[in-house]
Amino acid sequence: MKKVYMNWLIVGYLLLIISSCGSLRTQDEMLAPRRSTDEIRLEDIRQQLAQNPVRAIDLIGSFRETYKVIRDDFEAENLAVLENEATDNLREFLERAIAEERWDDAVSFSRSLANLEAVSARPPSAVFSERDLILAGAKKRLADGENLGAFLAAMQAHELAPLSFDDAMLFLERAVDLKQRRTAACFYAVAEQAGTAAMIPADYREFVRGSDNVTDMLKGVATVVVDRGIRIDRGRGFADRVLGTAFFVDQSGLMITNYHVIDSEVNPRYQGFSRLFIRMGDGSSPLIPARVIGWDMTLDLALLQTAYRPEYIFSVVDRVVPRVGDSVLAMGSPGGLEKTVTSGIISAQRRLFLQIGDVYQIDAAVNPGSSGGPIIDHSGRLVGIAFGGIMEFQGMNFAIPAGRLAAALPAMINGGKADRPWLGMVVNETSAGAEIVYTAPNTPASNHFVPEGSIVTSINGRQITAPQGFLISALQDILFKNRPGELVTLEILTPGGETIQRLVMSVPRPELPLGEAAKVDTRERLVAPLFGMILSPGAGGSRSSFQVRKVVRGSPADMAGISDQDIASIRSLRVFEREGFVVLEINIKRRRMGYLETTMQLLAGLDSPDTL
Question: What is the three-class DSSP state of 62?
């Protein structure tokens, strides 16, 4: 017993020594002089200079906006020195990427550097333009046999500045060799524009002037089968299978389908069994294993890889924009019935069913199992990708534009989840332009004090021009092709009529753009981005009663009949993050009804399409 007592005594003594050392360290830290907030921020900038100069430049801009009045000349000079060092490091990063032929990195660095120099009015320092770097990357991919990425990059370069005849011929020859008629036709048109038809071999001209029939195209369409094991329902077991459609976009076996078809293959929240196959024929045909290469949840797209070598390839480099009323064909496997073709027209444009961009409405029959199938026009050009319909209404189906697939593919080819840039703003299209109705906390927009109520006039130096109803999609398209982590220039017109610029670093777009804001911001501010109801303090200074200053047209508040100058008080705001929506319960006194008070519930999603 005495021995046990002595052991406990030794343990207690050791613990006392450890505690004393810890106390001494804590006391040393407590006696050390306190650093100011701005000193801590400056230290953060210094730590980023060598590793991530883009982030350092972003922090410098945020520092300047936080401390509008620099307290002394030394601090202002110190910031300028840090900014010059970060700029020099960014140039070195660009030059190293070019030397190592990391063309995607070089393009990203060049965009950030160009935006930095534009805002600071510095002369351009890059030896190569963004277009030249993209074209260099396209040629490297072509030499490496990465045909899909090469064709996409070449067309992207051409959109920035026309390709030369020799460059166009380089990609035309490869497309002809691969028997990809629609892709060859695109580069033929580019080569003809840069030179003359007489300069192009006659057999190339004959090939591109041919046509592919629907029977040929169906050889490039497959049924997607996702086997999710056995589902138990009321004590009975059923085969749990998801059916969809996919189509080939490259000779190597790369295919496109919808993300929601293969969700169980990559979604970490799914815990069950899941195996992915394709089938090229009818129900008796063998199942061919496939795997997911990359996916883009915001556009409901996924890129698959199979070992099957297709007989037909759909071109994704066509830049066809159909008009309302144009005829289209939909190919797919509705209900598992392979090689089904239905016809219809483009019923409408600008339907906002996804987080980014608008989609086409079509009346060609699309049913469960058709998801991911190609939509083509009368010339055989890819117009879109079927992704959904409204079962209760016949002929109400929707397709993702082919142009957005082309923009999304490079990131999906790189593998994994495709991250898209995010600034943290909710915008509303008005007669004055794209108005910022909300900046989410802890986002690039809020960190750089982008004022709400401002009008976005340009992004990355590009003026915003779009037909009515397409403005927000046009803004999103400018950002979409960029990587998260690049510097973005914003020119905005403040409510006071002042034109200002902000240089901000984009971050990866959240799965639910307003999910984090719903956790940390006040209910009174959240009703603006979620429900389109912008509040201002009510009469009498009541803490619970607010006046509706503005209602966004087409928003849940507008659809519920709420109007300007109504009086509102919030009873509750419940966030269902897993399900992706929010429920608002309010008391509303409507001006048009003599301020008679009523209670109502409104529902809104956390994946608003009006976000940048």
Answer: helix
**From residue 63, how far is each of 45, 59, 203, 391 by CA, in Å?**
9, 6, 62, 52
pLDDT of residue 113: 93
Point out which residues pair with 306 in neighbouring strands: 290
How does 267-278 read in b/e, with b if 16+ C-beta sit within 10 Å? eeeeeeebebbb
37-41, 70-74, 76-80, 235-239: range with lowest mean pLDDT: 70-74
What is the average per-residue pLDDT within 357-381? 91
Q: Give the pTM.
A: 0.87
- Compute CA 122 distance to the chain's CA centroid, rounded to the nearest angstrom: 30
Tokens coding 296: 């883009």
- How far is residue 114's CA from residue 106's CA, in Å, rounded to a whole number? 12
Instruction: Tell how far CA 214 is from the center of its chain.
Output: 33
Mean pLDDT over 523-527 rounds to 90
Handedness of CA 260, 265, 267, 271 (dihedral sign): positive
DSSP 8-state code for residue 253: S
Q: How far apart are CA 55 and CA 51, in angstroms?
A: 9
The CA-based angle 469-474-477, given to 5 degrees, is 140
Is the dihedral angle over the CA atoms 273, 277, 282, 284 positive or is it negative?
negative
pLDDT of residue 130: 92
